[in-house]
């Protein structure tokens, strides 16, 4: 997944190291400084050349600032075009070289999910930040734990699934709880219903979440319309109120929240290579290797429409197999980027690879490519103005 880095051989450069550093691009990048017999130094920066000169440059006076010139053997760096690329590159390199503390270096916080514990004889819900390999249903990620807890509470009001967290031992003399008294739980603890009947209610909850609420919305709308035709207006009004209540619960979902196995999408971001954008596909909550997509077709050869080229890219995709822990971290990286104030690029969700919205994807690519052209133009104008101002100053060249 990681492209080959650009390299500066510090040992071979010798006294010419400063010249090599001055030739490094002064743009955003992720870099590693390898040292003899020690773990490497890893960092991200928006100005690579200046950062390397600070860490590896020759100093005429003693300073408290970190300098690795005497220890460094090689510098590997990857120019990046977006915050998402920077985060994913940093994650993979930190995971490779710092196996025990890469999450600390990344400061990666795991998002929250609503989990249905299906392995329990009487399934229940809970809010968690950890994915597991056992039998369970995960719905998320949410922006905050409070958002997940609010959605869980409001969604359970639509069903008669238990809210207690204990491992039930059903018996008629069980004291029960207030939710059972209010008719908001089927009371399996008191043997009012059996395991099979309770499981059918849990399946309704799972269907509600996995369908994005469509299973209940369609049923409520159908019942409302039928009752209206039969002129049973009071019952129709109740069904309409139920329909609106379901809609209000669905509004509490965060943008990314979905069944984890249905968490598919593509992020379109700027590329560090001119004339291209980067496509970052996420399948079942797992990041795929990035695809550097050329915005305009090659000047030589047959003209192929962008839509056709995108279909070829999608046809070549296969969901990578990773561990549960890696999947949890991949979704956390998505949530960090998407829910942040510094998000760059567009996120386009889709239900499956057969239902990729190509029109939206083409528009997103065109917009991101246009932004890059404007950014490059503004940068060129700024640089030209700076040179002009310098030449007009006394003593300027």
Description:
The structure is a single chain. The chain is an alpha+beta fold and 397 residues long. It has 3 domains: 6-79, GIY-YIG endonuclease; 112-212 and 253-258, no CATH class; 270-376, no CATH class. Helix content is 42%, strand content 18%. It is built from 13 helices and 13 strands. It has helices spanning 10-13, 17-22, 48-56, 83-97, 102-106, 145-156, 178-181, 195-210, 214-229, 233-250, 306-315, 324-338, 358-392, and strands spanning 6-9, 29-35, 38-45, 72-79, 112-117, 124-128, 136-142, 258-259, 265-270, 276-283, 286-287, 291-294, 346-349. Strands 9, 10, 11, 12 and 13 form a 5-stranded antiparallel β-sheet that branches. Strand 2 and strand 3 form a beta hairpin. Helix 9 packs antiparallel against helix 10 (233-250). The longest helix is centred in the last third of the chain and has 35 residues, at 358-392. It is elongated, with a radius of gyration of 28 Å. The relative contact order is 0.10.
User: How many distinct folded domains?
Assistant: 3
SS element count, helices: 13
Shape: elongated
The value of Rg in angstroms is 28 Å
Q: Write down the secondary-structure element order.
A: EHHEEHEHHEEEHHHHHEEEEEHHEH
- Main β sheet profile: 5 strands, antiparallel
List keywords for this structure.
42% helix; 13 strands; 397 residues; four-stranded antiparallel sheet; five-stranded antiparallel sheet; 3 domains; alpha+beta; GIY-YIG endonuclease
Could you provide a short overview of the structure?
With 397 residues, the protein is α+β, with helices and mostly antiparallel strands.
């Amino acid at each position: 997944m990681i492209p080959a880095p650009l390299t500066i051989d510090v040992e071979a450069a010798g006294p010419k190291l400063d010249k090599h550093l001055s030739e490094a691009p002064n743009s955003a990048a992720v870099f590693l400084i390898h040292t003899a017999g020690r773990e490497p130094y890893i960092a991200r920066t928006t100005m690579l050349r200046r950062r390397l000169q600070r860490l590896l440059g020759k100093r005429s006076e003693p300073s408290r600032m970190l300098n690795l010139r005497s220890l460094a053997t090689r510098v590997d760096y990857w120019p990046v075009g977006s915050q998402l690329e920077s985060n994913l590159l940093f994650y993979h390199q930190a995971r490779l070289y710092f196996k025990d503390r890469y999450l600390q270096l990344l400061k990666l916080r795991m998002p929250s999910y609503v989990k249905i514990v299906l392995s329990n004889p009487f399934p229940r819900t809970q809010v968690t930040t950890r994915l597991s390999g056992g039998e369970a249903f995960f719905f998320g990620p949410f922006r905050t734990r409070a958002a997940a807890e609010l959605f869980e509470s409001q969604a359970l009001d639509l069903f008669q699934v238990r809210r207690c967290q204990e491992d039930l031992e059903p018996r008629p003399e069980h004291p029960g709880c207030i939710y059972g008294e209010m008719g908001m739980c089927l009371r399996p603890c008191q043997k009012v219903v059996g395991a099979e009947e309770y499981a059918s209610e849990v399946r309704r909850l799972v269907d509600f979440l996995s369908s994005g609420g469509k299973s209940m919305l369609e049923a409520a709308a159908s019942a409302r319309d039928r009752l209206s035709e039969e002129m049973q207006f009071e019952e129709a009004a109740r069904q309409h109120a139920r329909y609106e209540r379901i809609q209000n619960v669905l509004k509490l979902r965060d943008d990314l929240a979905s069944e984890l196995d249905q968490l598919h999408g593509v992020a379109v971001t700027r590329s560090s290579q001119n004339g291209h954008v980067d496509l970052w596909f996420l399948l079942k909550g797992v990041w795929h290797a990035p695809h550097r997509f050329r915005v305009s077709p090659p000047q030589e050869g047959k003209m192929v429409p962008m839509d056709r080229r995108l279909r070829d890219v999608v046809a070549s995709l296969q969901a990578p197999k990773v561990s549960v822990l890696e999947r949890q971290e991949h979704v956390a990286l998505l949530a960090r980027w998407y829910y942040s104030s510094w998000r760059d690029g567009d996120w386009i969700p889709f239900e499956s690879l057969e239902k990729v919205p190509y029109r939206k994807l083409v528009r997103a690519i065109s917009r991101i490519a246009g932004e890059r052209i404007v950014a490059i133009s503004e940068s060129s104008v700024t640089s030209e103005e700076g040179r002009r101002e310098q030449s007009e100053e006394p003593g300027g060249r």
